[in-house]
From TrEMBL:
Family affiliation: Belongs to the EamA transporter family.
Protein location: Membrane
Residue ranges crossing the lipid bilayer per the database entry: 30-50, 62-84, 90-109, 116-133, 145-166, 173-195, 232-250
Keywords attached to this entry: Membrane, Transmembrane, Transmembrane helix
InterPro entries assigned to the protein according to its UniProt record, in alphabetical order: AA-Vitamin_Transporters, EamA_dom, EmrE-like
Topological type in the membrane: Multi-pass membrane protein
Signal peptide positions (record): none
Keyword Translocase: no
Protein name: EamA family transporter
Superkingdom to which the source organism belongs: Bacteria
Pfam families membership: EamA
Residues of the EamA domain: 5-131
C-alpha cells in the first residue's frame, strides 16, 4: 500500500509540475503558486469539514514540522516553476528530483545504514543529474545555467520538505496537510502581493488550470503523507521522486521538447537510481 501511494504521489507531482511550469511561461511563478494554493487550501478545508476531520486536529508535534514543510515547499516550488519556465523541462525535472537524497542522508545521520543497493542507486542518480545538466552547464544546451541552479536549489528544499512532512504525518496526517498548506499559503500570497503591480493579470481562463494544479499537488502531498506513515521514509521518498518521468513525457507530447542522447541516458540513470534506492 505504501509503495502504491508513493507512486501515485509521483504521478500527481509530475503532472502538477508540468502544469505549473507551462503556466509559469505566461504568468509569474509566484502568481501561479499563490492562486493555486488559495484554491487548494479551500478544497482541503472543505474536505476536512465535510469528513469531520477538522474537529479532531489539535496542536501537537506535527505543528512545527508542518510549518517547516510549508516554508521549504514554497521556496522549492518558486525555484522549480521559474526553472521550468526558463529551461528544458526534461533537464530541470530530473535535477530537482534529487531532493530524494536528503531523506536518505538524514537517515544515515540519525543512525540508519542503507544497503549496498540503495547506495549504488544514490550514486547512479547523482551521475544522472550531472549527465542531464552537463550540456547546459557547458553552454551547449538550451537551458540557462541559472535554471539548472534553481533546479538544484529546489532539490535541496524539496528534500527538507519531504522529510519534515513525513515527521509531521507521524502524529497527524490531517494536521500535517493543513499546517503545511496554510504556512506555504502565507508565504506565496505575501510574495505575490509584493510584486502585484508589475505582474501580468491572472485571467479567468487561467483559473481552471490553476485549480487543477493545486488539486494535483494537494493529492500528491496527501498520498505521500499517508505512504510515509505505513512505510520507510527513505523508500517512499525515493518512489515519490520518480515524478520527472511524468513531467518529461508530458513535455515531450505537449511542447515537443527533445533531449540529446546523453541527456536521455542520464535521465534513465536518475530514474534507475531511484528504483535501486527503493529496492535497497
Amino acid at each position: 500500500m505504501s509503495a502504491g501511494l508513493a507512486l501515485l504521489a509521483s504521478v500527481l507531482w509530475g503532472s502538477s509540475d508540468f502544469l505549473g511550469g507551462s503556466v509559469s511561461r505566461r504568468l509569474r511563478a509566484v502568481q501561479v503558486l499563490a492562486v493555486s494554493q488559495v484554491l487548494s487550501a479551500l478544497v482541503l478545508l472543505a474536505f476536512l469539514l465535510a469528513t469531520g476531520r477538522l474537529a479532531h486536529v489539535g496542536a501537537g508535534a506535527w505543528l512545527g514540522w508542518s510549518v517547516l514543510a510549508g516554508l521549504t515547499w514554497a521556496g522549492a516550488m518558486g525555484a522549480l516553476y521559474t526553472a521550468l519556465a526558463r529551461g528544458t523541462m526534461g533537464v530541470v525535472a530530473p535535477v530537482a528530483s534529487c531532493g530524494m537524497l536528503v531523506p536518505v542522508a538524514a537517515a544515515v545521520l540519525t543512525g540508519e545504514r542503507p544497503g549496498a543497493v540503495a547506495l549504488a542507486g544514490a550514486a547512479l542518480a547523482l551521475v544522472g543529474v550531472v549527465g542531464a545538466a552537463g550540456p547546459e552547464l557547458s553552454g551547449s544546451g538550451r537551458t540557462p545555467v541559472a535554471a539548472v541552479g534553481l533546479a538544484a536549489l529546489a532539490a535541496l528544499l524539496f528534500g527538507v520538505e519531504v522529510y519534515a512532512l513525513a515527521r509531521a504525518s507521524e502524529t497527524s496526517v490531517a494536521g500535517a496537510l493543513l499546517g503545511m498548506r496554510l504556512s506555504s499559503l502565507v508565504v506565496v500570497v505575501v510574495a505575490a502581493a509584493a510584486t502585484a503591480r508589475s505582474a501580468p493579470a491572472v485571467a479567468g481562463r487561467d483559473l481552471p488550470v490553476l485549480l487543477a494544479l493545486g488539486v494535483l499537488d494537494l493529492g500528491a502531498t496527501a498520498a505521500f503523507a499517508l505512504a510515509s506513515t505505513s512505510g520507510l521514509v527513505s523508500v517512499v521518498a525515493v518512489l515519490a521522486s520518480l515524478y520527472p518521468a511524468v513531467t518529461i513525457l508530458l513535455a515531450r507530447q505537449v511542447h515537443g521538447e527533445r533531449l540529446s542522447g546523453v541527456q536521455k541516458g542520464a535521465v534513465v540513470l536518475v530514474l534507475l537510481g531511484a528504483v535501486l534506492c527503493a529496492l535497497g
